[in-house]
Amino acid sequence: MPINEKFFMTVMSHLKDLEAEVLAYRATFLTIKQEGLVYGLDDILRESKRLADIQMNAKYDKTVNETIQQMRRKNDDEELTKVLSKLAPAKYLN
Predict the structure, then answer these.
(1) What is the DSSP string of 56-91?
(2) What span, in angstroms and rounded, lies between the C-alpha atoms of 62 and 15?
(3) pLDDT of residue 54
(4) Residue 68 CA to chain centroid, in angstroms?
(5) Mean pLDDT of the chain
(6) Which residues have a Cβ under 8 Å from the Cβ of 5 and sit 6 or more positions away?
(7) Residue 12: closest CA among 66, 69, 20
(8) Which is the most buried residue in 31, 37, 43, 52, by most CB within 10 A?
(9) pLDDT at 68
(10) Which residues contact 2 (CB under 8 A, 6 or more apart)?
(11) What is the pLDDT at residue 6?
């Protein structure tokens, strides 16, 4: 199977998994918020998103730019695979 098919299948699988996880967290968040179990939950979420954006920008922006440059220079599946393999999903926010 060519790298493009593998890559597409991997991306779609990750998107599906991430969407399911986000929906589960969203449902949990709304339940906790409706029950009033945690004070300032909206502020906590807003700050968590801000910190996650900073971490994700630091993690992905350089790799995306490098990959685009490599793809423009040459269409080398092996090189692209090396670059993409560096992007292991984060399990926790630092």
Answers:
(1) HHHHHHHHHHHHHHHHHH---HHHHHHHHHT-PPPS
(2) 21
(3) 95
(4) 18
(5) 84
(6) none
(7) 20
(8) 52
(9) 81
(10) 77
(11) 83
Reference 45, options 26, 19, 61; nearest CA is 26
User: pTM here?
Assistant: 0.59
Give the Å distances, CA to CA, from 65 to 51, 60, 69. 21, 9, 6
CA 49 to chain CA mean position, Å? 12
Neighbours of 60 (CB within 10 A): 12
Concatenating the DSSP letter of every residue in 4-38 gives HHHHHHHHHHHHHHHHHHHHHHHHHHHHHHHHT-S
Residue recorded with tokens 């967290």:
25
Residue 76 pLDDT:
62
